[in-house]
Amino acid sequence: MFNLADKVALVTGASRGIGRGIAARLASQGATVVAAARGDHANECAAALTAAGHRADALSLDVTDAAAVEAAPGAIVARHGRLDILISNAGITRDQLLVRMKREDWDAVLATNLTATFLLARAAIRPMLKQHGGRIIAVSSVVGQMGNAGQTNYAASKAGLIGFAKALAREVASRAITVNVVAPGLVDTDMTRAINGKTHVDWAAQIPLGRLGTVDDVAAAVCFLASDEASYITGHVLAVNGGMYT
Predict the structure, then answer these.
(1) Is 154 a catalytic residue?
(2) Where are the domains of the chain?
(3) Which candidate in 20, 24, 151, 154 is catalytic?
(4) Strand order of the sheet with strand 134-139?
(5) Model-level pTM?
(6) What CATH topology corresponds to 8-186+215-240?
(7) Engineered SS bond to 114: which of 11, 65, 157, 198, CB 3.0-4.6 Å?
(8) What pLDDT, in 10s, does the model give residues 148-157?
């Protein structure tokens, strides 16, 4: 199952955390993974995948650079012959209570988390239409579903991905292109590990399964939606949150 051989996948935000895990999982299932990240981080991720025996390429990409984002899918097709899977994962936070939030922090989060997905999907759809098939998967968050104090910008961007995916799924379904969302809950990453242990205990207490999620939990869900086995699933939000929000 989940054989992605002969598929080409673009993963943004691939240098660390969830993005890194997704890139590794897709590559392990046979996909050629184009790891996109800023600067040398993309090269490091692609080199690690290649060293592990997988097929990988690097793409230095700032997802807030509209011209670069719009050119990326075409460049991948020129180099690899096709583009089958787009994973829009790159994201940032600029947390603050709304009354103190700066306009530039609102704009930065929306540009990175939501507008970049619009630009990438619009460009990626062109080769997918010619191929009569493709997978577009956006990585949202449980915060986009339930909200979180101090994260109005982040919550808006992640909720926006859900509405975007549901609408786009209806537009491209007739061409065998599926559009779905994975919404992780609290995930154990380098960033969350830097927070003290008591906070981890408090977080785990909110989760019916009693633990934080792992990068592999999220990557497995993405891999499923990218596979042929998920060909009849579109416009769906797959929650990977241990039951903390249903």
Answers:
(1) yes
(2) 8-186+215-240
(3) 154
(4) 56-60, 32-37, 8-12, 85-88, 134-139, 177-184, 237-240
(5) 0.96
(6) Rossmann fold (3.40.50)
(7) 157
(8) 999 999 999 9
